[in-house]
Amino acid sequence: MKNSVEEEAPEVEFTNETTVEDTSTVTLHWRVKYDGNLPVTRFRLYRDSSVDETTVEVDSDILGNTTKYTIHALLPGLTYSFKLAAFNEAGESDFVYLNVSMPADVPPKVSWVHVLASTNETLLFGWRRPNHDNGANITHYTVQLHHQNGSLVADKTMVINAPGRNNHMYIFVGLEPGETYTFQVQACNALGCGNWSEPLEGTTSDGVPDPPRNVLLICDHDYSRDSDSITVTWDPPVNARGTVLSYNVTIFTKAQYRNDNGQTVEEKTSKIEIIDVKAHKLEYRTDVMPNTEFNVTMCTINRSGCGPMTNISVNTRCRSPSNVPSVLPQFSMHRKNNSSNCRQLELKLQRVSERNGSIL
Known about the structure:
By secondary structure, the chain is mostly beta strands. It has no helices and 27 strands. The strands form 7 sheets. Strands 4, 5, 7, 8 and 9 form a 5-stranded antiparallel beta sheet that branches. Strands 12, 13, 15, 16 and 17 form a 5-stranded antiparallel beta sheet that branches. Strands 20, 21, 23, 24 and 25 form a 5-stranded antiparallel beta sheet that branches.
């Protein structure tokens, strides 16, 4: 008589060889306790976490001759519940369970960082607490600020009195106007500090710029063209407190003379010229009228506007020389005293304007 063997679903169990490799990796070990008189064809592995308590399928088709499995990308400081089932042709075993607590680690990298506000001397940065603290409360943050030339401006520690707070900020004061800085932050706990956040640039707004230096006004006469001109030159300010965009050149003119009616006239005008720094020159030149007094004053323009104007001095005033009248006078000629016997002629000239200079 032939012996009959009962074929059943297998039984499996975790062994104590399970190893936590690091703060995010574990290797599970198991053995087939009873194969049900049939070869085990595959295993199915699931996990739950203590955070969301959802069941996640790790692998549903592990080969039947496998006795261990390594799981990566786990979160430090969490407890995971793993469950395993074995299959043969007779069916599926009951699940067996194993809880594994992952060791705590330093906090993860802060990933949400923004510039919240800026003035000409301050920068306010904000960041969000990492979604997971890796098993140990965040105790403080380290913040660093570097100038764009690489020099360290500030290295500060900000202690956290409310561990559950999600949003944080830090303000740096006493910075230079119109300069670009790089900010980084790292979260720290009792085990140490995590990686630095990605560098974030912030730029202070421009401050009030100093006026240009060594402003000089020169009046000149070009004899080849018989024309007058003025030339203004200057040097950049000592402290631009930002990016110089242009210069304001304000020219005041004054001319006093007798017009063609013999009346004394005084002309006063002002003109503003904006010299763009893209022109790469610190000079302004223009043709002018003769017999005119000129004064010039200037300011530096950056992104905050026009700074204080320069004072008028002997170096910023000049006078264009007198010149001959621009038009000939009208004249008439007739006999003197209207006498037919008189052979003298009388020449009458009409007065012309002395705008170009006094007629002697």
